[in-house]
Amino acid sequence: MKFGAIDIGTGSVLCLAVEQAEDGQLQELINESVITSLGTGTLSEKRVGQEAQQRTLSAVVSYVGKLQAEGVEHISVVGTSALRRASNRREFVERVRQETGVEVEVISGEDEARLTFWGATSGLDWAGPVVVMDVGGGSSELVLGHCSKGQSDGLQEPALFFSVPIGSLVLTERFITGYPVSPGELRNLTAGIREEFRNETVQRIVQESRRFADRPLLVGVGGSATTLVAMEWAIHPYVASLVQGREVHAATASKHIERLAAMSLEERHEVVGLPKGRAPVIDAGLSILLCLLGEFGSDSMTVSDRGLRYGVVVRDICMANRMH
Question: Which of 134, 178, 208, 243 could be stapled to 221 by a disulfide with Cβ–Cβ 3.0 to 4.6 Å?
Answer without folding.
Answer: 134
